[in-house]
C-alpha cells in the first residue's frame, strides 16, 4: 500500500514506494510560463525522472499554446483536467498509478530554476533524516 503526505509550499517531495524522482507541474492557462520552467529544468536539474504536466485550459488559444509546448518537450507527459472538480483525482492517478517513483516533486508553472540542482543529493539528505518533504522556494 502506498502512503502519501502532502505539504504544499512551492515544490514538495512526496514519498511513495518505488524508485527515482518524478515531477508533477500544475499549470492553468500559462503555456509560456510552463515553457520557461521546462527550459530552466532542462538546463539546471540533474537526476529527474519523468515530468508530468497536470494542465487546465479555458480557451482554444491556451490549448494551442500548450500544444506548442508539447512539441518542444515531447518527453513531458501531459495530463488534462477535464473538469474543475477532477484535480485531486488526476493527482492521485499520476502519483499512485502512473508514476513509478519513490519521490515526487510538485511544482507550479510560475517557477524558474536559476541554479543547478542535483536531486540525488536532495534524496540522500531526506533519506538520512527519514524526511518526507524537501522544499525549494
Short description:
The chain is α/β, with parallel strands linked by helices and 137 residues long. The chain has helices spanning 31-44, 60-72, 87-98, 119-128, and strands spanning 12-15, 21-28, 45-46, 51-56, 77-80, 103-108, 117-118.
Order of helices and strands: EEHEEHEHEEH
CA-CA gap between termini: 31 Å
The helix/strand class is alpha/beta
- Per DSSP, what share of the residues sits in E-state strands of 2 or more residues? 15-25%
Count of β-strands: 7
How would you sum up the global shape?
A: globular
Strand order of the largest sheet: 1-6-2-4-5
Proportion in helices: 25-40%
In the predicted model, the low-confidence regions spanning at least 5 consecutive residues are 1-18
Q: In this structure, how is the largest beta sheet organized? A: 5 strands, mixed
Radius of gyration: 15 Å
Mean pLDDT: 84
**What is the count of DSSP helices, taking H or I runs of 4+ residues?**
4
How would you sum up this structure, described in words?
By secondary structure, the chain is of the alpha/beta class. It has four helices and seven strands; from the N terminus they run ββαββαβαββα. The protein has helices at 31-44, 60-72, 87-98, 119-128; strands at 12-15, 21-28, 45-46, 51-56, 77-80, 103-108, 117-118. The strands form two sheets. The protein has a five-stranded mixed β-sheet with strand order 1-6-2-4-5. A two-stranded parallel ribbon has the order 3-7. Strand 4, helix 2 (60-72) and strand 5 form a beta-alpha-beta unit. The termini are far apart.
